[in-house]
Amino acid sequence: MPALEPPIARAAGVVAPRAARPCTLVVCRGCCCGDPRKNPGTDHEAQVRRLREAAAASAGRFAVRTSECLGPCGQANVVVVQPSSAARSRGARPVWLGWVLDDEATREVLDWLHAGGPGLAEPSATLALQLITPPAARPRAAR
Q1: What are residue 66's DSSP bridge partners?
Q2: Would you say the pTM of this structure is higher than 0.85?
Q3: Which of 17, 26, 121, 140 has a beta carbon 3.0–4.6 Å from 116's, enabling a disulfide?
Q4: What is the mean pLDDT of residues 7-36?
């Protein structure tokens, strides 16, 4: 029987530091976002594939994941750009973007991710026009 490794000893109250996380792009692919009936001119599958390929080629600078539904369906396709742990420690917060539907919008998002995303780089003027209010920050009647 192989010997078991001893448990890692930790001092009481000391928390191990979390690994640094890159900027993360969350792409909505729920009821409206990603639906070819709502936005028939958008190749939703190609868009996610392009984003994932760019993330894979970024050497860990950013990551991409999908979500079932982020909420603001009237502004589909919605994406959320979450800051890296380094940017978050300096006060950066997630940025919500709507109407990310075409190749140009996708390129703008990728350019921002390559530059570091929220807290490390400013979004382009085009992306600034696509900023939306997160659902949790909206008044109840507006949801």
Answers
A1: 27
A2: no
A3: 121
A4: 73
